[in-house]
Amino acid sequence: MNKVIKFGEEVKGYDIPVLNEREIRAAAGLLFLLMFISIMVVILKGDFLMLKYAVTIFLADILIRVFVNPKFAPTLIMGRLIVRNQVPEYVGAAQKKFAWIIGVVLATTMFGLLVVANTYSPITGLICLICLLFLFFESAFGICIGCKFYNLFYKEKAQYCPGEVCDVKSRQDIQKTSFIQILIVFAFIAYIFLTVFLFNDTFTERPSDLFGIESTQHSN
Questions:
Q1: Backbone phi, then psi, for 207, in 5-degree steps?
Q2: What pTM did the predictor assign?
Q3: 113 CB burial (10 A radius; 0-12, 13-18, 19+)
Q4: pLDDT 10s digit of each residue in the chain, 220 long?
């Protein structure tokens, strides 16, 4: 039973239980895609059915991660299959469990309000936004937002963080950002706003059918 219900895996060379960050990021990407599409269906069509299914799936998956074993969580299994040819990046299991407990609280609240009580409110909207933010940062940047709070509640320092961010070290030259690069980012943001200001009316026009296929279909 102890081999089934546990959190993290023993890997040679690591003195604490660890998880594979690569499969975690893949799983986060899958969940982000599911939640994002579901929320867009709500926004565009006002249909909550897919979101209810998505919340139910998310809750079941994260409950398995926290209270049974991450290796048996369906999305992590899919993530493992997706990145099976990549070299594992091991991260400490303790801070991940803390982050996923936060996910359990959010998913349970969302499930109770949206699925059980069949209601929606600014609370459900805010929770959806937080979940999307957590999943996006994990999948896109490898940043575990929930893990950031681990050191606030536990005396022992988190070990084996993604990208070795737990270790204090000086940035390498390739990681440094110059003043010119920062200006480029701000200039790019200004370019986006200027484009919206100058071309918004043009961009809102419906594109014409280049080959006249649509008009041909209507005539038939």
A1: -65, 145
A2: 0.82
A3: middle
A4: 567 788 988 998 888 999 999 999 999 999 999 999 999 999 999 999 999 999 999 999 999 999 999 999 999 999 999 999 999 999 999 999 999 999 999 999 999 999 999 999 999 999 999 999 999 999 999 888 888 888 788 777 777 777 666 665 667 788 788 999 999 999 999 999 999 999 998 888 888 877 877 666 666 6
Indicate the domain borders of the chain. Answer: 18-171
What phi-psi label fits residue 58: left (phi over 0), alpha (psi between -120 and 50 degrees) or beta?
alpha
User: What is the token pair recorded at 15?
Assistant: 């003195």
Q: Which residues contact 93 (CB under 8 A, 6 or more apart)?
A: 7, 8, 9, 16, 17, 18, 19, 70
Spatial distance between the Cα atoms of 179 and 94, rounded to a whole number of angstroms: 38
Q: Tokens 């599911």 label which residue?
A: 34
For residues 139 and 28, give the distance between their C-alpha atoms in angstroms, rounded to a whole number: 5
24, 29, 34, 35 alpha-carbon torsion, rounded to 10°:
90
Is residue 11 a contact partner of residue 21, using CB atoms and an 8 Å limit?
no
